[in-house]
Design brief:
Elements (H helix, E strand, L loop, with lengths): L5 E6 L9 E4 L3 H6 L14 H8 L6 E7 L5 E7 L11 H6 L16 E5 L8 H15 L9 H8 L2 E5 L4 H6 L10 H9 E3 L21 E4 L21 H13 L3 E8 L4 E2 L7 H20 L23 H9 L2 E8 L12 H21 L4
Parallel strand pairs: 5-6, 5-9, 9-11
Antiparallel strand pairs: 1-2, 3-4, 4-6, 7-8, 10-11
Helix pairs in contact: 4-5, 4-11, 8-10, 9-11
Length: 379
């Protein structure tokens, strides 16, 4: 196997996310040569085929295609339950301006809370695709794809309107060849995740965001962050979307007015609910409380977790970006946030996690979210 070319540079990262690491490079042939020869377990959904092969088997949900990616791949919405939302008099922004949020959606009058689960908009972060395929199976049968009884999670879901967009960037996921990053190295994450420049050096995080869309002669391997037009759905132009994915996702949120919404991601570190940016401090505090409840469940189950974030306004020379989670709040009023799950990389600085533990982390988050939504619905 050829060794990847090392380039002298150090990328210093702060906060939750990738640890500081030497910046490396890799060719496509080298990346393919590093692919592990393994059979992923049946419960794991690491490729688009793992989703499409199961959609026709589920009889309970309403399943519809809400968009087509630039590569022609379907973006699915899986809905368990029926909407009881009354007609809206105004959009969310206008209703807030009127100081009458119920003009957009009278959430208190709804019989069931609405919870939106958004699968990976970064296509290599298939931990979420795996979790959501298992969640749909649980909603259908009461068991996950390991055959384990999940009647408690099933019962919670049946009391809610559950909306699942299992793959938020099907182009990126279709480009992801390993099927899982668990047990692989940070270099594999960087190649498949953010991709390379034309000289085979890694685009890296956050440098992969300095050019958008990622198209042109300076692009080598297009990482799975991006759809086939080089658009990162997490950082689309939300007031005038460039890609069909974010446009469709925001339309679902606008039409359903979820009480709670999550954009599911993955990273090297411990499981973490991130502070939502550009939303009221009250929304941040609600998500912080959800983080506490999630981390308590993870602790009880012997699973790793981060520490709750501190609510804060945006400030400083490098404030957090207004991203897809921010846009979900501003179009629907949802308590929307980003969740980061560990990949389970084989790195000393990474959070260790097996494939089974990764699924348990995902299902624990979903349970905490459903409980949170139901607790706030109960008088």
């Amino acid at each position: 196997m050829k060794q990847a070319k090392w380039i002298t540079a150090v990328l210093c990262l702060a906060g939750v996310g990738l640890a500081a690491a030497p910046r490396t490079g890799m060719t496509y042939a080298e990346a393919q040569a590093r692919l592990p020869q393994r059979q992923l377990p049946r419960f794991w959904a690491g490729k688009m085929e793992d989703l499409s092969g199961r959609l026709s088997r589920w009889k309970t949900p309403e399943i519809r295609i809400i968009a087509r990616s630039p590569g022609g791949r379907p973006l699915h919405l899986i809905q368990f339950g029926s909407s009881s939302r009354p007609p809206a008099l105004a959009n969310f922004n206008s209703a807030i301006g009127a100081r009458e949020p119920a003009a957009y959606c009278d959430a208190a009058a709804r019989k069931q809370p609405v919870v939106l689960f958004l699968g990976p908009v970064h296509g290599h972060e298939v931990e979420a695709l795996t979790g959501l395929v298992n969640l749909a199976e649980i909603m259908e049968t009461g068991r996950d794809l390991r055959g384990r009884d999940q009647s408690g999670l099933h019962a919670l879901g049946r009391r809610c309107l559950v909306l699942i967009i299992p793959a938020g960037n099907p182009d990126g996921t279709a480009r992801f060849q390993p099927g899982a990053l668990q047990g692989l190295a940070g270099a594999d994450l960087r190649f498949w995740g953010q991709g390379t420049w034309s000289d085979h050096s890694f685009c890296d995080w956050p440098g992969c965001k300095r050019q958008h869309p990622m198209v042109g002669a300076n692009i080598g391997f297009l990482g799975c962050y991006f759809n086939d037009q080089g658009i990162n759905p997490m950082h689309d132009e939300f007031f005038e979307p460039m890609g069909p994915e974010s446009r469709a996702i925001l339309k679902v949120a606008k039409e359903t007015a979820p009480d709670l919404a999550v954009s599911l991601h993955s990273h090297e570190s411990k499981p973490a609910l991130l502070r939502p940016a550009y939303v009221p401090l009250e929304i941040q505090e609600s998500v912080r409380q959800l983080a506490r409840e999630t981390y308590t469940l993870l602790e009880q189950r012997g699973l790793p977790h981060a520490e709750p974030f501190t609510p804060a306004p945006e400030k400083g020379p490098h404030p957090e970006p207004f991203n897809l989670a921010s846009a979900l709040y501003h179009i629907s009023g949802a308590a929307a946030f980003t969740f980061e799950c560990p990949h389970g990389l084989a790195e000393e600085t990474a959070c260790p996690a097996s494939l089974e533990q990764i699924l348990d982390i995902q299902l624990t988050l979903y349970e905490a979210m459903l409980r949170w939504a139901l607790d706030r619905k109960t008088p």
